[in-house]
Amino acid sequence: MLRTIRAFWHDQRGIALILVSVTLPAIIGFSLLAIDMSRANNLHNDLQKAADAFALAGAAELDGLPGSWARAERAMATLVTNQAAFSTVGANGRFTLTSGQPGGTARCNSAGNISWCFLKTLPASDGTPVTSANYANATQSIGEDETAFIEVKVAPTGFAAIFPASFLTGNSANNSFNVAAQATAGFTSGVCDYTPVFMCNPYEDTSITGGVTLEQAAQTRQYRRRQIVLRGDGSYFPGNFAFLASPFGNGANQLEKMLADSKPQNCYSRDGVDTEPGQNAGPVENGINSRFGIDSSNYSDGPAVNVRKGAKNGSQFVKSNKVDYETDPTKGVGLERDSCQIAGNCTMMGGRMGDGDWNFARYWAANHPTRAVPAALSGTGANLPTRYEVYRYEIDNNIYQDAAVGGETGVPPAAAGTPISTPDRRLLYGAILDCNALQASGTNFSGRQTGIPVRRFGSFFITESIKDGKNIYVELVDITGKGGNGTLDNYLRDEAQLYR
Q: Where is the Putative Flp pilus-assembly TadG-like N-terminal domain (predicted)?
């Protein structure tokens, strides 16, 4: 008997069944937890992908132009189709997330399964929640201009767990919980193939521009027609210019090369540019004058198609900048300055902004003596054509070859090289900065500054070659963003990206 008991005590057959029976509830429980975690994670991933997609679709429309809020709503409502699985909503736990278009007038709104807010800034740390201080202005016209980000939140949706946690608490509600997601995306805008130049916004101080803003100037012909003297004298006030940091360096030779080049390989972001101030009269003069067919730069890849500038016949191409210009306006003139600039009594921008009343009639009579003024350029007063419009008309209609009374044509001399095919060779592209506001907030332009915000990128028509080494006479042609006319779209590099 004792032997039988001892044998039974030491017999291990069937012990696995006992162990399995004891641990089976735990095995099943952990399996259910693993399944629940996988299902909950899949649901969260679906919701997060939807939040990301909604945010990116909305952010791509935030270009600072009027109607951007409504366009962002429309993009989220029409371009995004995301489904989620394993929720308590929909047949078999699957449902489609949707948005809507509640009007596009409010900085925060909701529709369908999401809510959103338009933001002008983000907190410095990703761990810091967005607050009302980050919201764009509630006034639509102001808020749309400053909106740079959109925060999208997907409404919490229920998830029912398989694991019977209610057995432990007696509360069946513990078997379910909500899952949500949110994403923040922003719109970045930049330009490429731009000259490394920045201009202090000529229209920043409206008290010296007759109350006209930069955006109004870009939209209105009579304001675009105002001739502006960009001055590079080492100070940073409205109408002055200096340089941006270039990946190729900012030495005199590199600056001259990029100013003479028809397609400089530089890219700059509206979020912030790096400035590299300095006075480089020689490179500026040489680089820009090479666009006029003046042999002043070893780096020029060709002059403009139309280099008419009022030069005396035979003096267009020389080994210096000392071109002889007509003194008799009946024989030939360039695109003349505004009357107050000629008289020296301009009142706007310290005397460096004209009234836009240049003598078009005299220019046409001297340079196209056998042609009547075309209907496209026949406006007077507020509708007087800009110098840039006249320059482009001459190219587009192949009449830049006409000889002036004094003999000059717009054809560059053969020794200047092959003209650049683009008609806009005489445009100067640059970043426009609100220098007064930047200096008031502590920016010191005396050395390199990084991450300086850009008001707009712009294009300016160079109306005449440089004669004094530091002043560039220009007309405003266009700007990017609000108030722009779209002529700079080929230079823009717009991109929507996720930030948090």
A: 16-60
Q: Is 288 helix (H, G, I), strand (E, B) or coil?
A: helix
Structure tokens at 487: 């002529």
- 348 close to 357: Cβ distance less than 8 angstroms: no
**What sign does the dihedral 94-96-97-100 (CA atoms) show?**
negative
- What's the pLDDT at 202? 94
**Cα dihedral sign, 168-171-175-179:** negative
CB 358 within 8 A of CB 473: no
Question: Dihedral of the CA atoms 258, 260, 261, 265 (nearest 10)?
Answer: 10
- Orientation of helix 252-260 relative to helix 281-289, angle to 10°: 20
Other beta carbons within 10 Å of 102? 14
Alpha-carbon torsion angle 87, 94, 36, 49, nearest 10: -90
Total length of the chain:
500
The tokens describing 408, both together, are 């000059």
> Which helix (H) or strand (E) is 118 found in, with range?
strand 114-119
CB 266 within 8 A of CB 244: yes
Q: Are 107 and 137 in contact (CB under 8 A)?
A: yes
Q: Report the alpha-carbon distance of residue 345 to residue 341 in Å, rounded.
A: 6
Count CB atoms within 10 A of the CB of residue 222: 17
Based on C-alpha coordinates, what's the Rg of the chain?
A: 34
280 contact partners, CB below 8 Å, separation of at least 6? 232, 243, 252, 255
Provide the pairing of β-strand 82-84 with 492-498: unpaired
> What are the beta bridge partners of residue 452?
273
436-489 pLDDT tens trace: 999 998 888 887 888 888 888 999 999 998 877 678 999 999 998 777 888 887
pLDDT at 170: 47
For residue 6, the model assigns a pLDDT of: 67
Question: What is the per-residue pLDDT for 151?
Answer: 95
Rounded Cα distance between 28 and 51, Å, is 34
Give phi and psi for 427, each to the nearest 5: -95, 140
Question: Can you give the pLDDT at residue 168?
Answer: 45
Residues of the chain with pLDDT under 70: 1-36, 160, 162-175, 249-250, 278-281, 296-297, 314-322, 469
The percentage of residues in the chain with a pLDDT greater than 90, rounded to a whole number, is 35
